[in-house]
Structure formats: structure tokens, C-alpha cells
Specification:
Layout: E1 13-18, E2 22-27, E3 32-36, H1 41-45, H2 48-51, E4 54-57, E5 62-65, E6 70-73, H3 74-79, H4 87-99, E7 105-108, E8 113-114, E9 128-131, E10 139-140, H5 142-149
Parallel strand pairs: 8-10
Antiparallel strand pairs: 1-2, 2-3, 4-5, 5-6, 7-9
Length: 151
């Protein structure tokens, strides 16, 4: 004897609200679902403008945040599934996000290592060259990278 399969219709998202600590999605069947923002670290690290720049995808079956490169499906929200992003992937994203905001890179004239965090123990204080864009030659300081990824 076989067990009959129950077909369920997943409602679509109609509206999205993101606060400092919650993601709330209104659904086409009249329900609203709220989950902790901590479930989605990219949303958690985003600012209010980035969090509010969303669009519905696949007829409301998903939500996409372009500025944060985040996609969440209504099905996963209803199933109680937080982000499946690995810590390594998140750390890489946070590093690239931070590097995009740096306005000053320094290196000693006789070195190939570029520094970008002033609290670095080897931040060049004299005899250095400085530029405002990410260097295309040399290497980024490992201590500086560690400082930005530990926050």
C-alpha cells in the first residue's frame, strides 16, 4: 500500500521589510513570516539602503538584494532554513566589501606589501608611497586583512 503524496502550494512573497534585527515577508495567502536577521549574515552586515534595495524574483518565490548579492527563497523561509553560506565564503565577501571602501593604501618604498589599516603594527610612517586605489602590483598585508576579517 502506498502513501498518497500531499501537494502543497507555496505562497509567494508580496512585500518585504528589513529592520535592524528582523526580516519580515508578507505572503500571498495573508500570512507574514519573520526571522532573525542573523540568519542571513549579508543582510545583517548591510546598511539600511542596501537592505531596502530588494526585488521579488520568480513570481514572488524569491527575494534578491543586488547590493548584497543575497537571494532568499520563500520556501526556505517557511521551512525555517537560515543561510547556507559557508564561513569561508562570507569571510571572502566581507573582505571584498571592506576593501572596496578603503581610500588609502601605503607601502614602504623598498617593499611590495601594501597596508590599509592604520592600526597595523607595520603601517608605514615614513619613506612610503601612497595611493587611493587598490594596488594592482605587490601583495596586501596579512595583518591588515586579519584585522578587517576579525570584525
Amino acid at each position: 500500500m502506498s502513501t498518497p503524496k500531499i501537494q502543497t502550494q507555496i505562497p509567494s512573497a508580496t512585500q518585504v521589510y528589513v529592520s535592524e534585527n528582523m526580516l519580515t515577508v508578507d505572503l500571498s495567502d495573508g500570512r507574514s513570516i519573520s526571522v532573525p536577521l542573523g540568519w542571513y549574515p549579508r543582510l545583517l552586515h548591510g546598511n539600511a539602503i542596501e537592505r531596502n534595495n530588494w526585488r521579488l524574483t520568480a513570481g514572488g518565490r524569491g527575494i534578491h538584494w543586488t547590493d548584497l548579492d543575497e537571494d532568499i527563497s520563500v520556501e526556505n523561509l517557511l521551512a525555517g532554513k537560515p543561510s547556507g553560506e559557508s564561513q569561508t565564503s562570507l569571510k571572502n565577501w566581507l573582505t571584498q566589501r571592506f576593501l572596496g571602501t578603503i581610500t588609502r593604501y601605503r607601502k614602504r618604498r623598498d617593499a611590495a606589501t601594501w597596508h590599509f589599516v592604520e592600526t597595523c603594527s607595520t603601517w608605514p610612517g615614513s619613506d612610503y608611497e601612497e595611493q587611493s586605489v587598490k594596488p594592482v602590483t605587490g601583495v596586501l598585508c596579512q595583518e591588515c586583512l586579519a584585522k578587517i576579517t576579525s570584525n
